[in-house]
Amino acid sequence: MIKRKIQGVLADLATKFPVITITGPRQAGKTTLVQLQFPDYKYVNLEDPDVRLLAERDSKEFLEQYSAPVIIDEVQRVPKLLSYIQVIVDRDKKKKGQFILTGSQQPNLRAEVSQSLAGRTAILQLLPLSIQELTEAGIQMDRDEYLFKGFMPELYDSNIEPELLYRNYYMTYIERDARQLINLRNSLNFELFIKLLAGRVGQLVNLSSLSNDVGVSVSTLSEWLSVLEASHIVFRLPCYFQNFGKRLVKTPKLYFTEVGLATYLLGIKDVSQVARDPLLGGLFKNMVVVEALKARYNAGKEGELYFYRDSKGMEIDLLLNENRELLPMEIKAARSYNPDFTEAITKFRSLVPNAKPGAVIYSGDLTPTIKETRFVNFTDTADIITKQVLTSKN
């Protein structure tokens, strides 16, 4: 079993808050994580229809049968439980770590938690496995293998082909969640929409263009996109525009939470196809951006990740905003380093006084520093994000 980086943060927060809420995509490892961390807790899953019926009809009886300390999985299925949990934890505020809640539909859960458990719960977000976690478990792969296989824990717990896993994942979870959250009438249009999104990873979100391709209104696509975000399938990386005025593009970029799913949706059926695919650059950026996001979440922090693009086309692929200081990063799938990769970072730092020396994250092994910009292999992305210090290894 692969140890999760977030485990230490989870253990610490359970000594400080009566409730811990963990959100994230389905099958990202939330249940495994909490059962490993709290082996003596009772466990109940609200996906079970009989259990869910009891929780809905008689919440008090449910919470007596599954009294604290308890792990409640997929708590968003019965949101009214949160009000009853509030009463219980307020009864004895000195007890910590009484309830461990997990959920996979973020907006529903966040809204209910904010209303019922404000000040009583710590919220963590768990994404699929990171390159850092795989490396520490002794699993190292080539760039194209990471992009093809992806990072879902089941891929590494059992001998299952990526195509089979992602096909079942799409049919079992994505379509089901979509039908729960919206009145989905045409699953073929919805599937086309998701595949078109996969073809646009790392690009600005343009629903008007997608509307023409799918044959569905912009308002409907906007609703579908919100559902995919709610289910942690995709996320929008915002443009950093604070203090830059009107000269910036403010449209977000779109990425998949699991790059392996995007690769599957593009019809890539073998690892040898990855390097030849015209979307290699976008998929590689997707992987690196999500690796950065995992590093932030695994440290118990908010994302605070952005990109930068002005009206003249000058762009930085990734910015970390930490303590009002900006760390610029360029992301290149290339295996060979090129000094020209540093030009955008150098220009950005001339415009932004509080920008730190940046990094070019690429697929090569050389780590030169050019104009204070360090070249770093993509497998070290988490170290860049957590340490934020780009010093030579010499």
UniProtKB/TrEMBL annotation:
Residues 17-134 form the AAA domain. This is AAA+ ATPase domain-containing protein. InterPro entries: AAA_14, DUF4143, P-loop_NTPase. Residues 175-333 form the DUF4143 domain. Transmembrane segments: none annotated. It comes from the Bacteria. PANTHER family: CONSERVED PROTEIN, DUF4143 DOMAIN-CONTAINING PROTEIN. It comes from Victivallis vadensis.
